[in-house]
Amino acid sequence: MTTPDNTQRPSLRSQRLNQITHAPHAKLDQLVKAHAPFETQANFARFVVAQYLFQAELVALYNDPELIAIVPDLAARCRAEAARADLADLDTEVPAPLAGAVHNPSKAEALGWLFVSEGSKLGAAFLIKRAEGLGLSETFGARHLGEPAGGRAEGWKRFTRTLDGLELSAEEEAEAEKGAIDAFLRFTLLLEQAYATAPELA
Fold first, then answer.
1. 76, 149 Cβ separation under 8 angstroms
2. Angstrom distance (rounded) from CA 1 to CA 94
3. What is the tens place of the pLDDT at every residue in 122-138?
4. Tally of domains within the chain
5. Is residue 26, in this structure, part of any structural domain at all?
6. Is residue 30 situated within a structural domain?
């Protein structure tokens, strides 16, 4: 048997981004499990707080004309309003923004952030099944986890095909990688904050 060469870089940009974000992604998955968002609706509401904060921070990217020129349906992919509606369904206040949001990133860095946001829709297919156990659905309380128009897999394939087909300089490649890693770190921070500020249960 041969040992795989861990230093080998995949040829596709989307695969490279998956590879370099493996560690922060795994850490985030563990943190989500530790907070048990699917045990109670109250626990799930804190998870939605983090989702809303993250998506709200990305609204400017999803509506950026330069990025829409690359991904024409980008604005329709944004889930901030769906998460906001979920908070209302769950009788949870819309949280105030948290300092440190991504601001005016380069085009390549923004694509790294969007890669993480769009990729999370694949995992949402499993999460919404868990949410259904709490009496929630893609029309009540778990809208932001719902199936995107045209399907999850197809939407992701279209996004990654576009991303993989872009001509980027070495500097831009590094910026895209930084954006993807920063996105995972930011969501991890928002998740920790959402559960740290959970209202005291009587």
1. yes
2. 54
3. 999 999 999 999 999 99
4. 1
5. no
6. no
> What CATH number is associated with residue 112?
1.20.910.10
Full residue range of the structural domain in which residue 118 is found: 37-195
Q: Specify the pLDDT at position 35.
A: 96
What three-state secondary structure class fits 142?
coil
In DSSP terms, 58 is beta-bridged to: none
Q: How many helices (H) and strands (E) does the chain have?
A: 10, 0
Evaluate whether residue 95 is within a structural domain. yes
Three-class SS string for 1-50? Answer: CCCCCCCCCCCCHHHHHHHHCHHHHHHHHHHHHHCCCCCCHHHHHHHHHH
Tell me what pLDDT residue 202 has: 35
- At 200, the pLDDT band (50, 70, 90 cuts) reads low
- Report whether 168 contacts 108 (CB < 8 A): yes
- Calculate ∠ Cα 82-62-122, nearest 5°: 60
Residue 188 in any domain: the answer is: yes
Write the pLDDT tens digit of every residue in 74-100: 999 999 999 999 999 999 999 999 999
> For residues 50 and 103, what is the distance between their CA atoms, to the nearest angstrom?
18
DSSP state of 145: G
- What are the backbone angles phi and psi of residue 42, rounded to the nearest 5°? -65, -40
pTM of the model: 0.93
Nearest to 21 by CA among 197, 192, 186, 182: 182
Q: What is the amino acid identity at position 189?
A: L
